[in-house]
Amino acid sequence: MKTTKTIERYLDGEMSGEELKDFMAELKHNDKLAQLVELHKEINESIIDDQLFAFRKNVKYLHTQIQNKKHIDINRNSSFFSRNKIAIAAAITILILFSGALTIFKIGRLSSEEIFSKYYTAYNPDVVVRSENNINGGLHLAIQLYQETDFSTSFEVLQNFIKSNKNDVVANFYLAMNAMELNRMETAIQNFKFIIDNDLQPFVQHAQWYLSLCYLKTDQKELATEQLEQIIAQHSYYFEKAKDLLKSIN
Q1: 3-state DSSP call for residue 240?
Q2: Segments making up each domain of the chain, as ranges
């Protein structure tokens, strides 16, 4: 899969020569790449900061006021100095507006941690797991503890449970969710990837979504972006959330 940086270089017109020729050739025959390029176009077009939009309107309005004699009452007999004062005042106003817009833009850019907090919600165990694993009570107890937000105890119970149930998808998933709550992101990433790599249903789609959030939390934005692009390409359960999160990252 082409990386986000490669696609952005193409869209920004930074490719040339053989590189551009090769990319265009692949674009014609690679449907997934074409979909990703279109997705990036949509995202780039939709990211319009409201404050910057207002800034452009203000500058345009001020420029119109200066140029339009109907709106600026300048005495034709005014001295050259008076007209210069108006021009200087207008220039200062534009600079103030521009500086303010840049400040707003910088403030408006959320950090990875802030974006993570906006999109992360704990998984709701809405399905009662019925399997032989529940007979001994270990897995059921761990899920109950997770629901009660006793993440540390739930994590310990699951660690012990997995020692003899390594491939249990439910145990691996809730171990990863507890790890996220305990800010043990490397453990969470490891378990989510284990679920995805081994196609352990029915938690693969959930694991993909939370894995992207783990990458974001650890400021691995490129990995988060690639994971989100996969979710979008698959039109999975988290399709809309993935599109929104990708906009926030970019």
Answers
A1: helix
A2: 4-46, 50-108, 118-249
pLDDT in tens, 46-90: 554 544 555 556 655 665 665 565 444 545 555 544 555 555 555
pLDDT confidence of residue 220 = 95
What percent of the chain clears pLDDT 90, i.e. is strictly above it?
A: 46
DSSP state of 77: T
Nearest to 186 by CA among 220, 209, 153: 220
Q: CB burial class (10 A; 0-12, 13-18, 19+) of residue 224?
A: buried
Say which DSSP state 128 is in. -
Residue 241 in tokens: 């959330």
- Of 142, 104, 109, nearest in space to 125 by CA: 142
CA distance linking residue 195 with residue 199, whole number of Å: 6
Superfamily of domain 118-249: Tetratricopeptide repeat domain (1.25.40.10)
